Amino acid sequence: MALSEYPIHTIDGEPTTLGAFAGKTVLVVNVASKCGLTPQYEGLEQLQETYADKGFTVVGFPCNQFMGQEPGTAEEIKEFCSLTYGVSFPLMEKIDVNGETRHPIYAELTTVADADGVDGDIRWNFEKFLVSPAGQVVGRFAPLVEPNDPALVGAIEANLPN
Fold first, then answer.
1. CATH number of the CATH domain containing 97
2. Can you give the residue range of the structural domain that contains 49?
3. Options 8, 29, 32, 35, the catalytic residue
């Protein structure tokens, strides 16, 4: 099955797939509201605002697998993201990104290595995967890579459809 075909639900419970973003460059990020890296939401929103009209979107996947740093309900997560960081990019349902209950999207994503050759399990909140408009994973970025990091921004710009 292609990455774009795996079923998922939006944070509002609506069924969808990553195929809903076909033709766009997508930055897939596992997110959390109570993490030291949570301020990255601000940079992710800046990327969204800067590149959305050029065929780009961030897609956030809340995950509570790292020290329980995303304990909220869907409504609490939406409210936090909206009120605290003005998040306008799509958020999906809370999922597991590691282990036996890992969502199939992340089973696919974690086969890709980052620039240092690290693949496999997600290391922490805010690990980022860049997916090309054709649906291919073209980059993996460690959690500490900030959204405005030149390597990440350069990869986004190099893969924009417009």
1. 3.40.30.10
2. 3-20+33-125
3. 35
3-state secondary structure 117-143: CCCCCCCCCCCEEEECCCCCEEEEECC
Phi/psi for 60 (5° steps) reads -95, 135
Active site residue 63: no
State the pTM of this model.
0.97
Does 80 map to a domain? Answer: yes
**Residue 50 forms part of a structural domain:** yes
Q: What is the mean pLDDT of residues 132-148?
A: 97
- Judged against a pLDDT cut of 90, whether residue 162 lies above it is answered with no
Instruction: Specify the pLDDT at position 1.
Output: 83
- The yes-or-no verdict on residue 75 having pLDDT over 80 is yes
* Residue 72 domain-assigned (yes or no): yes
